[in-house]
Structures are given as C-alpha cells and as structure tokens.
Amino acid sequence: MNNTILQPEFLDTFMPMHVLYDSEGIILHIGPTLEKMRRCVPFVGSSLSDIFSIHDDGRGTGEGPVPHHAKLYIKFRTGIPTQLKGMAMPVRQSDLSVLNLSFGISIVDAVADYRFTAGDFAHTDLAIEMLYLVEAKSAVLHETKQLNLRLQSARFAAEEQASTDMLTGLRNRRAFDQAFEEFLRRRTTFALMHLDLDYFKSVNDSLGHAAGDAVLREVAKIMNEETREEDVIARIGGDEFVFLLKNLTSPDRLLNMARRLIARLEEPIPFHDAFCRISGSVGIATTEQYRHPTAEKMSHDADLALYSSKRGGRALATMFDPELHSGV
User: Fold this and answer.
1) What interhelical angle do 295-311 and 173-185 show, nearest 10?
2) Spatial contact of 68 and 61, defined as CB atoms under 8 Å apart
3) 100 beta partners
4) For a FRET experiment, which of 17, 49, 93, 260 has its CA 20 to 30 Å from that of 304?
5) Which H, E and C letters describe the chain, residue by residue?
C-alpha cells in the first residue's frame, strides 16, 4: 500500500463508503461511513460475500469476487436492508480492488436510519446538496403544515365565537336560527321550547350584574344536564332561552322535562355570602301541530304558550293549544 491512492486516509476522505479487498474477496479496509452503518460487524478479514449480497448488470469484466466496471446492486445480508449502488475497479500493479458505494435515491432513508451528517460524505458528493434540499423542503413543509393548523384553529375559533353566547357557552341567536331552518328543511319532527327566567331582574337589582352572570352560567349548566346531546339550546336574550328538542313531540314528556327544569331552576344558587332565587316559565310548540311548520309560526305560538305560563302565576309550563290561544 505504498501507492498514495491506497493510503487509508486518502480513501477515507474521498470515498468514505469504499471497500478495499484482495483477489480472494477478503476485506482489507473500509471507509468510515460504511463502518458506521454496521458498527458491530467485523469487516476487515471477512469475505465480501459474507457481508454483502451483490448483483451486477451483466456488463462486468475481469475475474474475481466482484465484476469490475459494472453497475452493482448491493445489500447488507443482515440488519437494515439499505439499498446500495456501487462500482468496483482494480488497482493497477496489485491484486487489490476498490469497491465504492453510494446510496442513490435511498439516501434520505439512510440518513434517518443511521443518523448521518454532512461529515459522513465526501465534500464533493452531490448527496450533500440533495440533503440540504430535502432538509429545506422538509422545513418548509413543516412550517406550512403548522401555519395551516394555526389558520384552521383560528377559523374554528372564529366560527365558534360567532355562533356561541360567550357568557354561557350556549348557542346564540344566529346559531339557533340556522339550526331551526336546518331542522325544518330536513323535515325533522321536533319541539320548540321557549323559557324565560322569572325574578332574574331582582337578582341583578339586589346583588349586581356579577351575580346575574353567575346565575346565567348555572342556568346553562342545568339546561345542558337536563337535555340530550342532539338537542339545541340557545340564549337569545338577557334571560330568554330556546330549545329545539329533536324527535320529541309527546306533550307528556315535554311537560315533564319542562317541570324538571323549572324545579332545578328554583333551587337557590349560591353567590358569595348570598343565595340567588329564580324560577322559569315555559311555552312549547311542536311540529306535529302544523301541516307546514315554519320558524315564524312556531316561534309565535311558543311565545303565546309562554305568556300563558306567565299570566298563570309563573313557574309553569304550557303547551300551545290552537283552540285556547287562537284569540290571543
């Protein structure tokens, strides 16, 4: 190995994935990057055929363990099945040959599998440029993905804010109107329940608006607990609430639900050292009462039933009755 080209430091620098072997195919030296791929494999002294599976394109020349001047397709016999490409050349005036390897298009996977850095490749290797491009592309894609996620989250938040009553977390009038029209468009059977809080003004007047806000949040919590997931609940005014109760039109069931709500609303709500006392009045209309239900007609009739509850002494639930309320 007096020839300068065969000096290990020369080969390691210019061909960090080389294999130097003799005419019998016995490995004499390997490049540092190749060694890094199989740290526990005793390359030196082993046969090429024991370490690698090698196939050529059929155009090789020369006799020996590996065809010379041919494109080679190479895999390790054990471990990660990284695809390698290579070419072997004889060293003049010796019985030695050098097999130089590269990754080709498998370089991206190889970098991930073996945690390679730029220092594992020759400085002139175009693989370095490719790696920089891949890293730049990955960084751009990552940032684009993160930006899209942030934009999507912001859009969802804006849509949620536009359809939500910020104090109670219930739907607002805009969202309620959209759901109402959707129920009618799909010809869903449902009940419209209109609930007004009783004595809420006295809470605000005596304990302040902070107490009123606390009461409204507790009212929303009660309403969520007493209804189903498929039901729509909205706050459409200061102390006005409406419900769309999907596939629920039985008067008995509706009145029982309303009375449970009223009973829970009448339980004292603590606020600091005081208790807030309210109640609720309810009016109900169902799609079964109309040949062609409309939002305007159902809302008007549920309001008529609600006014009957108010006039009857409050804390009552009333079903709309066409005969009873026709002259109202």
Assistant:
1) 120
2) yes
3) 18, 87
4) 260
5) CCCHHHCHHHHHHHCCCEEEECCCCEEEEECHHHHHHCCCCCCCCCEHHHHEEEEECCCCECCCCCCECCCEEEEECCCCCCCEEEEEEECCCCCCEEEEEECHHHHHHHHHHHCCCHHHCCCCCHHHHHHHHHHHHHHHHHHHHHHHHHHHHHHHHHHHHHHECCCCCCECHHHHHHHHHHHHHCCCCEEEEEEEEECHHHHHHHHCHHHHHHHHHHHHHHHHHHCCCCCEEEECCCCEEEEEEECCCCHHHHHHHHHHHHHHHCCCEEECCEEECCEEEEEEEEHHHCCCCCHHHHHHHHHHHHHHHHHCCCCCEEECCHHHHCCC
Maximum separation of any 2 CA atoms in the chain, in Å: 118
Q: Judge whether 29 and 17 are in contact, CB under 8 Å.
A: no
Pairwise CA distance, residues 281 & 318, whole Å: 8
State how far the Cα of 294 lies from the Cα of 23, in Å rounded to an integer. 94
Catalytic residues: 239
- Cα-flanking dihedrals φ and ψ of residue 194, to 5°? -110, 125
pLDDT in tens, 156-172: 555 555 679 999 999 99
Nearest Cα neighbor of 285 from 296, 274, 277 is 296
Cα dihedral sign, 102-105-111-112: negative
Residue whose entry in the numeric block shows the structure tokens 């526990």: 40
| Cβ atoms within 10 Å of 28's Cβ, excluding its own | 15
> Rounded distance, CA 186 to CA 188, Å?
5
Higher pLDDT, residue 144 or 12: 12
pTM, entire model:
0.55
φ, ψ of residue 144 to 5 degrees: the values are -65, -40
Residue 61 pLDDT level (bands cut at 50, 70, 90) = confident
Length of the chain (residues): 328
CA angle 44, 46, 48 (to 5 degrees): 105
| pLDDT tens-digit map of 7-42 | 878 888 888 999 999 999 999 999 999 999 988 888
Type of residue numbered 186: R
